[in-house]
């Protein structure tokens, strides 16, 4: 497929073919004097878009909300959800517009503007997103992709001088996100809470037909029971979500707002707000300043995900009377998560395969990291050197050096048990322990530059984070401990 210009994209919008109650058709509210701060050629390639198209006036027009995507059908979707464990009722795209969907070389992608003005679902909000949070979303989704974590993507970042009131006056921006689907757990809760099984079924069938067609497969010789596809859907989402949690835990990512309306039905990382990649490790690290009870702390993420899956299962109960069958599916979460978590953490420790006794080895490291607030990313990255005898950089991360050293002795002994060549072990570790992650202070530096119209830091970070496992010469400062001022950065739900 040759690269296309924007007008050749041939968008459609299959979500718009759902009944009208699923959304509101409306045009975005553009920005005054919008400027394209950054565009992502990698994401453009996913929809077959020519890189040259990124610098055209049409591109800026479409992704600043000034004109529709050719062939698209712009709308804001409705959903509901549980926020911080409490039923919040109707929510929806309060500041996002789905432009349409483009078939790329390897699948379809929905294109959505975020920060593009008020919709019927804006509640008390102004429909806008500030530059700060838009840069953070733009960078984080690409960073997660670089780490191999399932995520929505980002195509473009458009800025303006339009004032937006938050704690202080900031400026408005629009980030274009891409995802095969933006349907959330809360999209299902919306219809079950309204006791509208027909609409719930319509949504479930839409999701199954488009994204999980295998859910309709019956075991050989059997015809699928009426309810089997919905049980299978819950199983598929449960599995993907469990794998996603293992991925998050392994890279030290905290989402910050794991409300059911931010949980992707495709198991993607969705809605980057007050997220954080941990610097100093704390088991109970809370990245979101607004989360005073620590509901969404790092060590609670897997169990919160399961709690959220229970809400999805509760919704599907309207289609599947057999609650035991749904519960049995949810019970699979723990085994899938634990296995994936052990796989990932075992690989990070350089183990050929996970043995039951490795649980204690991992636990003791995490406890030690927690007690010393050791830097998450560097602890893991420096392990590869440490197991080759260059121990000091690793031990430097711990106040209690003797304890760190004693733990290393155990790991080295464990490697001896595996009997692999050191080079092989070390190469494997460096393939899974990133050197570069989007630390808060790196995002902050990119934001500060972006406020002056300078996208060079965004550009540098995009290049490093796209390939976070490989050291790049000249970029050492992106792979060091955070500066003292990083501890003072507060991220909250304000965005
Ligand atoms: P979030 O926690 O950012 O995922 O947002 C929760 C809900 O609030 C969603 O329905 C958003 O669309 C909506 N929302 C957040 N910020 C705004 C805003 N500035 N204007 C309108 N709606 C918003
Ligand atoms: Mg959200």
From TrEMBL:
Nucleotidyltransferase involved in the post-translational modification of proteins. It can catalyze the addition of adenosine monophosphate (AMP) or uridine monophosphate (UMP) to a protein, resulting in modifications known as AMPylation and UMPylation. The lineage of its organism: Bacteria, Pseudomonadati, Pseudomonadota, Betaproteobacteria, Burkholderiales. Pfam families: SelO. Its cofactor is Mg(2+); Mn(2+). The active site is at residue 261. Its EC number is 2.7.7.-, 2.7.7.108. ATP binds at residues 92, 94-95, 114, 126-127, 177, 184, 271. It catalyses: L-threonyl-[protein] + ATP = 3-O-(5'-adenylyl)-L-threonyl-[protein] + diphosphate; L-seryl-[protein] + ATP = 3-O-(5'-adenylyl)-L-seryl-[protein] + diphosphate; L-histidyl-[protein] + UTP = N(tele)-(5'-uridylyl)-L-histidyl-[protein] + diphosphate; L-tyrosyl-[protein] + UTP = O-(5'-uridylyl)-L-tyrosyl-[protein] + diphosphate. Mg(2+) binds at residues 262, 271. InterPro entries: SelO. It comes from Achromobacter arsenitoxydans SY8. Belongs to the SELO family. This is Protein nucleotidyltransferase YdiU. HAMAP family: SelO. GO terms for molecular function: AMPylase activity; ATP binding; magnesium ion binding; manganese ion binding. Keywords: ATP-binding, Magnesium, Manganese, Metal-binding, Nucleotide-binding, Nucleotidyltransferase, Transferase. The keyword RNA-binding does not apply.
């Amino acid at each position: 497929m040759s690269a296309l210009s924007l007008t050749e994209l041939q968008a459609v919008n299959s979500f718009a073919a759902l009944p009208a109650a699923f959304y509101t058709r409306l045009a975005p509210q553009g920005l005054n004097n919008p400027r394209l701060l950054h565009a992502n050629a990698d994401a453009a390639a996913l929809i077959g878009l020519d890189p040259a198209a990124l610098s055209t006036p049409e591109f800026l027009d479409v992704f600043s909300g000034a004109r529709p995507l050719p062939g698209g059908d712009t709308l804001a979707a409705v959903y509901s959800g549980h926020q911080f464990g409490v039923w919040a009722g109707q929510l929806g795209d309060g500041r996002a517009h789905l432009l349409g969907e483009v078939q790329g070389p390897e699948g379809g992608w929905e294109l959505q503007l975020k920060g593009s003005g008020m919709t019927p679902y804006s509640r008390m909000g102004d429909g806008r997103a500030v530059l700060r949070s838009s840069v953070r979303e733009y960078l984080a989704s690409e960073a997660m992709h670089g780490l191999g974590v399932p995520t929505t993507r980002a195509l473009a970042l458009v800025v303006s001088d339009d004032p937006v009131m938050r704690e202080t006056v900031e400026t408005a921006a629009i980030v274009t996100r891409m995802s095969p689907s933006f349907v959330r757990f809360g999209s299902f809760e919306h219809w079950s809470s309204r006791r509208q099984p027909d609409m719930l079924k319509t949504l479930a069938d839409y999701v199954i037909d488009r994204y999980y067609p295998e859910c309709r497969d019956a075991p050989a010789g059997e015809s699928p029971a009426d309810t089997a596809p919905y049980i299978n859907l819950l199983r598929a989402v449960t599995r993907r979500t469990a794998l996603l949690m293992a991925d998050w835990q392994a890279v030290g990512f905290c989402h910050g707002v794991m409300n059911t309306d931010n949980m992707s039905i495709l198991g993607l990382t969705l809605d980057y707000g007050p997220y954080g990649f941990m610097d100093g490790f704390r088991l109970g690290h809370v990245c979101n300043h607004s989360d005073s009870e620590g509901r969404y702390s790092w060590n609670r993420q897997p169990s919160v995900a399961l709690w959220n899956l229970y809400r999805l299962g509760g919704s599907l109960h309207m289609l599947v009377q057999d609650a035991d069958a749904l519960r049995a599916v949810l019970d699979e979460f723990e085994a899938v998560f634990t296995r994936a978590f052990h796989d990932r953490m075992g690989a990070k420790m350089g183990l050929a395969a996970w043995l039951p006794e490795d649980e204690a080895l991992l636990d003791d490291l995490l406890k030690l990291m927690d007690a010393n607030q050791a830097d998450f990313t560097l602890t893991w990255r420096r392990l590869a050197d440490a197991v080759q005898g260059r121990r000091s950089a690793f031990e430097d991360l711990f106040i209690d050096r003797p304890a760190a050293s004693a733990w290393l002795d155990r790991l080295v002994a464990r490697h001896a048990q595996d009997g692999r060549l050191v080079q092989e072990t070390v190469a494997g570790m460096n393939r899974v322990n990133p050197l570069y992650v989007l630390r808060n202070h790196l995002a902050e530096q990119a934001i500060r530059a972006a406020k002056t119209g300078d996208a060079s830091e965004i550009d540098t970070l995009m290049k490093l984070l796209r390939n976070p496992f490989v050291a790049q010469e000249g970029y050492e400062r992106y792979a060091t401990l955070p500066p003292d001022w990083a501890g003072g950065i507060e991220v909250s739900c304000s965005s």
